[in-house]
Amino acid sequence: MSALSTFFESHFLNASALWWLAALSPLIIILYFLKLKREELTVSSTLLWLQSIQDLRVNAPFQRLRRNILLLLQLLILLIVVLALSRPLMNLEEKDGRKIIVLIDASASMSATDVSGSRLEEAKKGAIDLVENMLKGDQMSVVLFAAQASVLSPFTSDKPKLTSLIQGLKIQETETQLQEALTIAFSLARARAESESSAEIHLFSDGRFSDTAKFSSQDVEVKFHSIGKSSRNVGLVALDVGYATGPSAATEIFFSIENFDVVDAEAEVEFHFNDQLIGAKRIQLDPALRYSGLAPTTGNQEGILEIKITGEDALNVDNTGYAVVRRPPVTKVLLVGKGDFFMKQSLDVAGAEITKLPPSGFTPSMTEKYDIVVFDSWAPTDAGNGSFIFHNCHPSLNDIEIKGEAEAPVLLDWDSTHPLMRFVSLGEVFVLKLPIVKPPKWMKVLAETSEGPMILCSEQEGFRSLYLPFNVSNSSNFSGQGTFPIFILNTIRWLPATEMHRSRQFLTGQSLMLNSRGKDQVRVKSPDGKKHDITAESGRFLFPHTTQTGIYEFEADGGNTQQFAVNLLSPSESKIVPQSEFKIQGADVQAEQRVTKSNREIWHWLAYAAFFMLLFEWYVYNTKVYI
User: Is 483 exposed, middle or buried (0-12, 13-18, 19+ CB in 10 A)?
Assistant: First the structure.
């Protein structure tokens, strides 16, 4: 029975329609057994009624069925029609038993409407064509990817299940990360390497990847199905909120708009504050030109600013940006240890509320009550969970090695692109004594000397830390430089506990994090109105499902609500011109125009045959030809 079921599944897209043949064929045959109802009349002789008597015999019930060409034609027409409805397939390839891995891009750029419906809808059609082309023994696995990749279906030959799964895919308004998707795909392919089945990967995307594949194709066939036609788009690529220090902190909202088309464009930009129009601008943009400016000021008012680019282009998700304007709360800092004078002064300038504590009074549970904990010249064996600055001391981690101390190392380079190093120059900085640190791989080096790292940072499980292994005052002139207060201010803004309170700005795909402050549970309301209950873990609330642009609300007990803005702001997604190839470790993978069909549907030929057979049956009926 399973072999018969497999046969029908591999040769018919709608095999259930064949049941109509069993249901309708007996009805047609029964019609030929029906007795005609006749009016009874008395006549003197049946001599002149011999033909009528023969007709009576023909229409008598339960007689032996005579050969009748009309009956045969009608049964044949029924057979052809039912076969057409079952959508039979003609296999054009003899190979079978393939393992097909389908990667479908659901990132923001795939919502572009330059093709029928959207690019994602076009990709879904192509993937469903692959499902319909599956041969006997073929199995398919579906992987959806955007900012992250996930396996939606393990290998299966269940065509209706695969079709339903693909049809239900939705856009995630995030950037595209190809590396993780290909890693999963090649892992699936390797898992089938022991069998004799061949594996092939089908990638449906517009090629707008924010990363690149950094490994070889590993002898697995990769087919790239490029989706999209147009490059016409003007999008919002930057949006930031800044506050001046002091009790009457004014608000400045910076934004950037870019024209990604190859021709000039005009953008009408509207500014709404708390749903009220407060300004508008008309901007002329040359091709590939970025315009930057300030939104109309809101003074000291608090609320939601919405920036809208009106007009029509192929991508809508980057036409709107949101900013939560809230006066930032005072940053609470716990300073444990000696308390370096210059560091304390810089924290004061940044507007932090500092609590000093000797090392003997510190316990790990204290970290939940503060936004930042500074360990100065002393570090505990257990720091707890929080955002930390380790100054002139070392975190108690097994994978950090201290290999002595270097005298007057030469500063080689620093990472000016990192948020901690924004507007920070180390060109005049020197270090007299620097511990030689061999950091773990998960730590990021921000400044490098000839003897090893000088400034490091880390981000793990939602917590960020700054690591300064040297003394910024006694062993260096760093604390005396004009950029040191800027460095401390960047640190206060970057560490997650304060970053949430200050900027309230996030990108799609980033996790929203909030200090629990003693609460066990909060409810998160996403832009589509759905609500999610989340529980505190390690002193933090973590919400990773930011796949939509808009305003997210954290609702805690007692009616306390905090709002956070999530925007796309991705030039790589807004530049929607489709790619005709992508590289896997130097090898070009060319785009295919359409899915190559190994199965051909022949229902339309059967429909033509049924039509001509019907004409022939009509001809036979009218000429009364019998056998």
Answer: middle
Nearest to 334 by CA among 315, 311, 352: 352
Q: Tell me what percent of the chain is helix, strand and coil, each rounded to the nearest 5.
A: 25, 35, 40
Distance CA 161, CA 559 (A): 44
Give the pLDDT confidence score for residue 600 in this predicted structure: 63
Is residue 1 very low, low, confident or very high in pLDDT (cuts 50, 70, 90)? very low
Question: Residue 471 to residues 354, 403, 467, 475, 539: CA-CA distances in angstroms?
Answer: 20, 17, 11, 5, 30
Q: 0.90 cut: is pTM over it?
A: no
For residue 117, how many C-alpha atoms fall within 13 Å in the half-sphere facing its CB? 11
Query: Letter for the amino acid at 549?
Result: T
Residue showing tokens 């054009």:
92
Shortest CA distance to 518 belongs to which of 480, 486, 557, 471? Answer: 557
Residue 58: φ, ψ to 5°: -60, -40
How far is residue 347's CA from residue 409's CA, in Å, rounded to a whole number?
Answer: 28
In three-state secondary structure terms, 240 is: strand
CA dihedral 293, 296, 300, 305 (to 10 degrees): -90
What are the residues whose beta carbons fall under 8 Å from the beta carbon of 329, sequence distance 6 or more?
Answer: 501
**pLDDT over threshold 70, residue 192:** no
Q: Give the DSSP letter string of 21-89.
A: HHHHHHHHHHHTTPPPP------S-SGGGHHHHHHHHHT-TTPPPPP-HHHHHHHHHHHHHHHHHT-BE
Rounded average pLDDT over 558-578: 89
CA quadruple 271, 277, 278, 284: dihedral positive or negative? Answer: positive
Could you tell me the two tokens for 209?
């990847």
Who has greater pLDDT, 384 or 34? 384
pLDDT at 247 over 60: no
Q: In what side-by-side order are the strands of the sheet with 550-555?
A: 505-507, 561-567, 550-555, 521-525, 531-535
Indicate whether 13 pLDDT > 90. Answer: no
Segment 284-302 shows an average pLDDT of: 85
Confidence at residue 562, expressed as pLDDT on a 0 to 100 scale = 86
Tokens representing 416? 């000016």
Structure-block tokens of residue 488: 């401390």
24-38, 469-483, 577-591: the lowest-pLDDT one: 24-38
DSSP letter (8 states) at residue 136 = T
Largest CA distance in the chain: 140
Closest C-alpha to 515, from 373, 402, 368: 368
Encoded tokens for 373: 């904990």
Confidence of residue 395 (pLDDT cuts 50, 70, 90): very high
Nearest Cα neighbor of 371 from 277, 493, 527 is 493
pLDDT band at 272 (very low <50, low <70, confident <90, very high): very high
State the angle between helix axes of 484-494 and 341-349 in degrees (0 to 180), rounded to the nearest 10: 60
- Give the residue-averaged pLDDT of 332-346: 86
Q: What span, in angstroms and rounded, lies between the C-alpha atoms of 621 and 626?
A: 9
What is the structure's pLDDT at 498? 43
- 626 pLDDT tier (thresholds 50, 70, 90): very low
